[in-house]
Amino acid sequence: MRSKLWAVVSVAAVWLASVSSTATACYCGVGRYAVCCRACCTPVAQQCYTVMQTCQQIIYEQKQYTCYRTCYDPVWEQKPVTAVRYESETRYRQCVETVCKSVFETAEREVCYTVCRPVTYLRTVQVCGGHWETREVACCVPKPCDPCAPAIRSVQQCRVWVAEMIDKQVECVRYVREIQTRKVPYTVCRLVSEQRVHQVPYVVCKAVPYQTTVSCLRYVAKQVPYTVTRCEPRTISTQVPVSVCCPAACN
């Protein structure tokens, strides 16, 4: 700070010295004495004296100021709020649909079939038959008391079978094919459409409000002071002694 002050004072002294050489004639009633004296007259003697000249100097001073800035502090608060939760609920709706139902019915149809019918008829056949006849047969009979004696011829009656062919009526059976018809029952399946109503379940989500408490963050503004140092310019007026020489009046 002192070096700046001395620099300003030295600059002011140089400037005043340069001004005094050309502007000192103002005290004699002319604008520039050096030029005027050379052109008008020759100086006889000079009068020198010291005058005080005001010199202004700008200096910078440090000043402290108190400023305020806005800060925000977080504050947690408990607030009651109304929330909503969703609950599933099962409901029913009526659904009408058309279905085909099987209906079984019994019907009859004629069926042809072949049968063999027995037919009785008589046929003449020859059979081997015969009869018994009594005939006399000659035979030798030994003596019972003397087996070595010659046999005695005798005639005996014997029954003899006499074979013969006889025509005979025989009842025979032959089968004749016949086509006959009969009614046979059978089952028929028929589809009948009908309307059916049934309950169909479905799930819906229902909103249910409830009260709860939540933590909310809130920022509270507050003024926080802080100190700021600034350099401010200030003008100082200083009386500087200046030597002024004024020549005497011209002849």
Q: Please work out how many helical segments DSSP would assign.
A: 2
Q: Rough shape?
A: rod-shaped
Could you tell me the radius of gyration in angstroms? 86 Å
Order of helices and strands: HHEE
Parts with pLDDT < 50 across at least 5 consecutive residues: 18-41
Largest sheet: 2 strands, antiparallel
Distance between the termini: 53 Å
Q: Please give the share of residues in helix.
A: 10-25%
Question: How do the strands of the widest beta sheet line up side by side?
Answer: 1-2
Query: Structural class of the secondary structure composition?
Result: mainly beta
Strand content bin: over 45%
Number of strands: 2
Let me know the average pLDDT.
77
Q: How does this model look, in words?
A:
This protein is mainly β and 251 residues long. The protein has a domain at 2-75 and 230-247. It is built from 2 helices and 2 strands, in the order ααββ. The chain has helices spanning 2-23, 33-40; strands at residues 46-141, 152-247. It has a two-stranded antiparallel ribbon. It is rod-shaped and about 250 Å long. Mean pLDDT is 77; it is low at 18-41.
What's a concise summary of this model?
With 251 residues, the protein is mainly beta. It has helices spanning 2-23, 33-40, and strands at 46-141, 152-247.
Question: How are the secondary structure elements laid out?
Answer:
Elements: H1 2-23, H2 33-40, E1 46-141, E2 152-247
Antiparallel strand pairs: 1-2
